[in-house]
Amino acid sequence: MVNLRTNRTSSPKQQQLVNTNKVLNPPRLEGTKLLCKVNGTVRTPGASLNDVPLTVSKANLAKGDLFVLDLIEDGTKRIVLQVDEVKENQNARTPEIIIDLNIAKTFPIKLYEKYNIHKVSKPEDFELYLVELTLREQYFSRGDMWRFTRKLVNTTVYLKKCFEIFSMRATVYGLWVKNAPYRVSSGYVTKHTKFVFRSLSACCTLFLQMSKEMWDFDLNGDTYYEKAVDGFLSDLFTRWK
């Protein structure tokens, strides 16, 4: 099985800094490598958060095909992507791939440069074991989570990819496979892939009952109100930081 690795980091912010996938075992690829020019496009204002469809031209790929894009010439670092549309550009002299600019920002891809691509013959070689999604200021019920994840089956995902499905938004934060290197930066979602949803805007509400006893003094001369606000709450918020 082919695994695509990212560098391990020590803090959540560093974990979001994406490097690239490192290939440990040879994948099951089809045919020979093809040199393609990579262009980028941006999302139109007011459009959904979903990435602009990945389009290919003269690359001998069909809609739904998976391919690996070598980020460096020796092929030791690569990303797996999926074709969304096929358009024959008559003006294109060489095979061409049009990607969302978010991909170019996340991975070290230089626009208008040429990269080697290789069609994947067995998508299961890139199967993901776990996908971690983050969301903000939204409520997802169990049914919402199930419907959301079912739409991702048989698609490729990568770190920091944004989704908007059924008016629900989420971003890919972490990807894992069963074997080493375990944490990867891109992969293929199957019906066996597990999902974890994490809210970045979760809140906790504390209620303090104000009564006459709150103004009584303890043995140290402090009021119970002071102990609650300056003691308990202060220590709690410090710990949560």
From TrEMBL:
Record-annotated Vacuolar membrane-associated protein Iml1 N-terminal domain positions: 131-241
UniProt-listed Pfam families: IML1 (PF12257)
Organism, scientific name: Didymodactylos carnosus
PANTHER family documented for this protein: DEP DOMAIN CONTAINING PROTEIN 5, GATOR COMPLEX PROTEIN DEPDC5
Top-rank taxon: Eukaryota
InterPro entries referenced in this protein's UniProt entry, alphabetically: IML1 (IPR027244), IML1_N (IPR048255)
Single GO MF annotation: GTPase activator activity
GO process annotations (BP): cellular response to amino acid starvation; negative regulation of TORC1 signaling; positive regulation of autophagy
Protein name (database record): Vacuolar membrane-associated protein Iml1 N-terminal domain-containing protein
GO cellular component annotations of the record: GATOR1 complex; lysosomal membrane
